[in-house]
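Much of what follows relies on a compact textual record of a protein's fold. A record is reproduced here so that you can trace the correspondence yourselves:

. . .
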Amino acid sequence: MFVAVISVLPPSSRRLWRAARSALVAALAWAAAGGSVAAASLTVLMGDDMAASSEFVQQLRADQEPGGRFELVRVSPGAPGAAQPEAAAAPDTERAANAGVRTRGLRPSAADTPLTMAVGPAAARAAVERPGQEPLVLAMLSRLEYETLKASSPALRRGDRRVGVLLRDPAMADQLALVNAVLPQKHRVGVVATPESEPLVRELQRAAQGANPAWDLRVEYAPDARSIASALRQVVPQSDALMVLPDLIGDNQAATLSVLRAAATAGLPVFGASEGLVRSGGLAAAVSTPSQLAQQARQLGQKVASAGTGSGNSNAPLVEAATPATVRVNATVARGLGLRLPEERELTDRLAAPR
């Protein structure tokens, strides 16, 4: 009967029917694989009211699946254990009613696993000390903030809970890839760092040595603000470009301006990982917005929830750097340096190509 009906359809209708059938099969397969990356129950810890954190949380709320439970918890500054729920969406009543009806051997998908997400360093400190075994994602942390948390919080490596960490800055390999895309014939990069920046410097050194060809990296340390000028005098003559790290220098406007002025005097471009640096006189930066970081955090939460606990080195946090979502270029600085650069979109595509 079914075959007879199909046989009398005109060719165009049969093509439409086959396309619809293929789309239905794909949709069913996607659903069976747990296609949604939005957790059914998401608890978000927020420790500050910075604009970036607010944008991050707004995107998380917007991406929450319909009927899913979303709870925002404010963490009191200076009191990691003190937290107050702010708002919660009503749970999906059908899912709640059926939650206890499971056959033996049936396991919930990663998308159904409750997830806690901490936004910023204060919330991250509170989250790792909270009881519970549900998967945890620490987001919007700098590399140095994560290293400090790792050194001071043994609970970060609890064996009964999987933890993911999303850094807010791109990996050093991506930073160097941007320099190479903008200055393909140059391979000398100079950096002025603080002693506290050692984890960042080590990552940069590994990325520089692993590149083909390897980068000629010159690093000088400035223990305090008065030492920056001296360090720059050592670095600038041996560099084709300078890089500002997301450390005490990159986070300090006066220190960053010292680097930008020295570079401008020597006719060197400056690269970094923030739009603010580009607006202030840097040449280019690979950045990811808070909204884009929220989407990446969702995906990381899915990975963490799927990983399980209690096997191998599963208590080690899963750490991801921000995926550079876009490249920002200061066209005025480029003209001043006599550089003709590709469009921002083309540079963004080049940076994403190896992924």
User: Anything to note?
Assistant: The first helix runs from residue 2 to 7. The domain at 41-89+110-167+292-321 is CATH 3.40.50 (Rossmann fold). The chain has two domains: 41-89+110-167+292-321, 172-288+324-352.
